[in-house]
Design brief:
Strand content: 15-25%
Helix content: 40-55%
Order of helices and strands: EHEHHEHEHHE
Number of helices: 6
Shape: globular
Distance between the termini: 22 Å
Largest sheet: 5 strands, parallel
Structural class: alpha/beta
Strand order of the largest sheet: 3-2-1-4-5
Number of strands: 5
């Protein structure tokens, strides 16, 4: 199974990884994982004040800071994993990548907001659920 794991380095990412460990069927060797992090784009008017190489370095460093503990986790569990950093609006990038990459499943952490909170504020998970053409497993 080809599985997309969107991560942001938060406690919800850690909870999702802990859930994977407690469900050994998801850690099976036949699964292929892609860990995705989406760094928010700096607004164009602010980005224009920095050289392109400095912006690129910022995006890469931010993504690597999120990937670093996850690399340790996947190495410890011998998971076939690739890492993909992207820049943009997370729900849109996750939904598009899940289809374009022909993933079988998206597994992601959720903040666990109440329905009222989601209605008012929304969340990445809610938006991915609304827009994804690929099955999504939310871990709360």
């Amino acid at each position: 199974m080809k599985i997309l794991l969107p991560v942001d380095g938060s406690a919800y990412t850690k909870r999702m990884l802990a859930w994977l460990v407690t469900h050994e069927e998801w850690l099976a060797a036949q699964h292929e994982y892609t860990v995705l992090t989406v760094v928010p784009m700096i607004p164009p008017h602010a980005a224009s004040m920095f050289p392109a190489d400095q912006l690129k370095s910022y995006y890469e460093d931010t993504a690597e800071a999120i990937f670093k503990p996850i690399r340790k986790f996947t190495a410890k569990h011998n998971l076939a994993t690739s890492y993909v950093p992207k820049v943009g609006h997370a729900p849109e990038v996750i939904s598009k990548m899940s289809v374009k990459g022909k993933y079988d499943l998206v597994i992601m952490g959720s903040h666990g907001h109440s329905n009222l909170m989601n209605l008012v504020a929304g969340s990445v998970a809610t938006q991915v659920l609304a827009n994804s053409k690929v099955p999504v497993l939310l871990v709360r």
